[in-house]
Amino acid sequence: DVQLVESGGGSVQAGGSLTLSCTVSRYTLFTTYCMGWFRQAPGKEREEVAAISTDDFTHYADSVKGRFTISRDNASNTLYLQMNSLTPEDTAMYFCAAASFGVPDPPRPTDYGYWGQGTQVTVS
């Protein structure tokens, strides 16, 4: 089974930066999965933050373009999300997701079959 574990969340002041990591189980063929970051704030629907394909094409939500960067390290089965210039509107639980097939543009939560437990990001 594919297991995803997020880390790197925390509390930061507006204008600050955080880097989230998502480690995928070592026996997964990580290179064959499309990966994504989603977030969900209290009372709101889960929304896409950023996605990356198996050949490193990326997609970003308009709200994070120019501030967030998604990347993947296939050697270590790790997905990253570098977040800069954070604002209170970025406060949410952030989830890592994996899809064993290609995802549409823009991707939706239902396109991903595997999810991590989430890591909280709070910006004040």
Describe this structure in words.
With 124 residues, the protein is mostly beta strands. The chain has no helices and 11 strands. The protein has strands at residues 4-7, 10-12, 18-24, 34-40, 47-52, 58-60, 68-73, 78-83, 92-99, 114-115, 119-123. The strands form 2 sheets. Strands 2, 4, 5, 6, 9, 10 and 11 form a 7-stranded mixed beta sheet that branches. A 4-stranded antiparallel beta sheet has the order 1-3-8-7, with no helix packed on it. A hairpin with a 4-residue loop joins strand 7 and strand 8. The radius of gyration is 13 Å and the shape is globular. 32% of the residues are buried. The mean pLDDT is 95.
Mean pLDDT: 95
Helix residue percentage? under 10%
Instruction: Return residue spans where pLDDT drops below 50 for at least 5 consecutive residues.
Output: none
Gyration radius, in Å: 13 Å
Number of DSSP strands? Answer: 11
Helix/strand class: mainly beta
Shape: globular
How do the strands and helices of this protein lay out in sequence?
Blueprint: E1 4-7, E2 10-12, E3 18-24, E4 34-40, E5 47-52, E6 58-60, E7 68-73, E8 78-83, E9 92-99, E10 114-115, E11 119-123
Parallel strand pairs: 2-11
Antiparallel strand pairs: 1-3, 3-8, 4-5, 4-9, 5-6, 7-8, 9-10, 9-11
